[in-house]
Each structure stands twice: as structure tokens, then as C-alpha cells.
Amino acid sequence: MRLLAVHPSSLMYTKVFLRLEPLGLELVAGAARNKGHEVDIIDLQVENHADYWERIEKFRPHAVCFSGNYLANVPEIIDLCKETRRRLPNVFLFMGGHSISFIARDVLSLSDGAVNCVLKGEGDATVGLLLEAWEQGRDLTTVPGVVTMDGEGPPPIFVETLDEVRPARDLLRHRRKYFIGTLDPAASIEFARGCPWDCTFCSAWTFYGRSYRTASAEVIGEELQEIKEPGIFIVDDVAFVHAEHGLAIANEIKRRNIQKEYYLETRADVLLRNKEVFRVWKEIGLSYIFIGLEAVDAEGLKRFRKRVSMDRNFEALDYARSLDLIVAINLIADPSWDRERFEVIRQWCLEIPDIVNISVTTPYPGTEIWESESRKLTTRDYRLFDIQHAVMPTTLPLQEFYEELVKTQQILNNKHLGWSAIKDTLGIALRLALRGQTNFLTMIWKFNSVFNPKLQMADHAQKPKYEMPLKPEGTDQKVDRKTLYVHGPAGRKSRKLDDDTEKFVDETRMSTVD
To answer: Record's GO cellular component, any one (predicted)?
Structure first.
């Protein structure tokens, strides 16, 4: 069976600061290929719709699957599915991915019958079973995680082990187009899957049922050795939760004499707890870490259910700086912010040496704030759910909110990529250009053409083609967390953590319910 796996186009933030290889889709493609299917991948982040139709014509797939990890990509995916169905009436069309797993039936209804099913949960665990059921003409709802307009299959299942399936990186064209910051080109890799915490704005834990699973150091070492790119982005939701695992991978890298540069994302409390792990990783190539502070005051942290004091956050930043790591902080701008609040944030960000990224509070299906946030949505247009548009009422007039937001983002961008920093920036860009890599150089000049209040207001003025389901009436009452999960929680046995780390996680999350 011939399967074409498709990743949709870039979103607002990824048009400037990063473009990551579609690792999840490569894992699904690898799993399907392991089952004997002929597989191809097209990534519309680096190719276009004309390339897609050319690939359809040449490959003549029996099945096409779309990766739906981001809500803002839903309109593009649905339109492509409808047109693909028109051109190939008998093709098997299905979707999967993180965000679509939470809204499966709604997306199916919008497709007007073009899409056969949605595959919820870990696609690499069940794509083989799904393709087999289709080939044999069996009821698709016998497959775990399948949702059709007529019914739903058994609950999604996990891959038996993260060592089981490797990504089909060889199928991806234009590999040198992937980058993140100065890591150009960059490959992506996962060391672990899942997150044991439970922040209200995040759906990683509701997707994975608060599980936390790891790949073996040996398999990770083999994979790193095979990757040709000099830069590696570790895509774990929280890197090095388990210190022993992080050190085992580091030792494997040393044993194999692998020379790479690494970026990763972690929590401040994990960094402070596992200082030795990060020190060792600095020695073997770690250069850049993202730390999600989310807020710069206690009230904000409480809203996002992050039981990390501001003192501990600042202590973590100091430690990262002491290792000579570049630190990028993520803050979440609430629609309630006024001019004074934006100005306070700007001044704070300018006083610290670190890079700061700002996104907008956005309730997503699968998060607790989707259920509990009492402010009504001002739009249900899928395109605007990209954490760069305000989809809830703003205290400032919307135009002014965007002006303040973009002004803040522009000041922070200039701090590290503007004229004052151009000497270092240009030096890096020229060194990369001499190696044929221009992603970072292009990024430097793209900001104003993408982050623009007039463009954001124009996005709101467009009539929505596809709208999200109505958000439930939010209340301050406790949310029934069982209704949020894609993979149901299995408790302690689903987390590959030692007892001390399990205790640490429980002490640093706000809820005590699994």
C-alpha cells in the first residue's frame, strides 16, 4: 500500500524563528514502513501546494494522512482533504496528531465526508493496524484510537517501547531547510515522551495521560550517530526530568565521541534539581535552553498552576548563565494586560540578559483553561488559534493590544537581533551562509513582515471558513480531568521515574489528582 504523509504549512511564529523537521510524522512514516508499506513524506513548511499535487500525481497514493498538531492548520488540512477526495475518489484519507486528537469528531464533520477517520493518540502505535484494517475491508472502529462519523474504536494505545520505531528521516526532502535560531541546519530528536506535570494552559499531560516514558541511551546514541546535521533540537516537553537517564545519554554520547550542538526545553525546578546533568551536557555541546517561566509574578504562576516561586525561577536563570548557556524565557501575555502592564514587562525583559519570547494566552481543547476560562471567545476561527492572536476579550481595544504586543516583541527582538547586536548576529549569519545555510540570515530581516498589528487585525476581519466547536461555559469550579485525556491516565506505573523524582513531581505541581 502506498501512503503519503503530509505536514501542513508554517504558522506565524514558525515563519520567523524556527522551522523544525516534522518528527512525529517521520515516526508515523517509519512505523508504516516497518509494516511493509511504501511511504513518502511531503512537508508544506518547505514545499507548497503545487508540489503536493505533483507528488500526488507521481506517487498515486492509496492513502494520505495529515499531521494535525496545530489548530491553526485545520482549515488548510480540510481544504486539501476535500480537493484530494475530489481528484482521488477512492483514496483513504485520515488525520492524526496532537490537537486534532482532542477535536476529532468536529473536524470530521467539517470535512463533509472527505476524511475517512481521525486516528487519536500516538499514531506510530496504531497506523499499521489502521492501514491493515482498511486494506482488508474491516470495520475501522476496531482499531484503537479511531474516530469516524459512525463511531469510535477502543481507547488509543502507546507504542510498546520508544526504542521500537525510528523516524524515517531519509524520506524528508530539503533537510537543510530546518533550523531553530542559530542552530542551522538542525535535526530533532526525542529522548522521552510525555509530561508528569499538569499546567492549566498545556495539553501535553492530557494527551499522554501524565505518563513519562524514555528511550534507551543506546538507541539514542545510535540515532544521534546517524544524524548528519550538526545541530540537534531535543523535543522533549521537559528535558532531563530523570537525572539518571540524562546522564546515561551523555555517557553514551561521550563513548561514541558524537560532536553536536544541542538546544532543549526544560523547567526551572528541573534545572535546579538536576544541576549536574546540565553541567555535563554543557560539556558535550548543550548551548541553549528554553525555560517556560510563563509569568513574572506569583499570581500569574498560580493561574497556570506552576508551583515554582519567582525566587527559584531567578535562581535557575542564574545557574544557567553560570554555565554560559544562552537562555530563552517564554512569557504568556494575558488579554487583560493594559499599557502599564506591557511597559512593566518590557522594562523587566530589558533588564535581564536573556532572550524573552511572548505568546498570548489561548484556551485550547484539551487544556483545563478551555473548560474553566470564564471569558467567552471573541472568535472561533481556527486560523487565529496560534498563540499569536487574541481570541478572548482584551482590556485594551484589540488594535491597541496588538500594537502593545508587537511593540514589546519588537523591542525584545531588537535586543538580540537588532542593530545594537548586529555585529555578533551578522558574524554568525555570514559563517552559516558560507556553509550554504541562510535560514538564520533570512530570519533576521523577516520580523516586521510577519509581526504587524495591521496584519493581525486583517486576520480578524476575514470571514471564518471553518470554526471551532463552541467552548463550554467556563466556571471557577473544578474541572473533571478525566474528560480531558486522550490517553487515559495509568498512574505511577506509566511514569518511568524513580521514587524520589516522582515525589519531586508531586511536590511541584498544584494538583494531587492523577
So the answer is: cytosol
Count CB-CB contacts under 10 A for residue 246: 26
Residue 490, SS3 per DSSP: coil
Q: Please state the domain count of the chain.
A: 2
275 is in which domain, residue-wise?
Answer: 171-417
Q: What is the DSSP letter of 384?
A: G
CB-CB contact of 263 with 181 (8 Å):
yes
Q: pLDDT higher for 354 or 207? A: 207
Burial of 311 (0-12, 13-18, 19+ CB in 10 A): exposed
* CB contact at 8 A, 508 and 307: yes
Query: Is-above-0.70 flag for pTM?
Result: yes
pLDDT of 419 > 60? The answer is no
| 336 and 391 co-located in one domain | yes
Residue with cell 465526508: 113
Among the listed residues 502, 506, 494, the one whose alpha carbon sits nearest the alpha carbon of residue 194: 494
Select from 207, 204, 280, 213 the least CA-distant residue to 241.
213
Q: Are residues 209 and 337 in the same domain?
A: yes
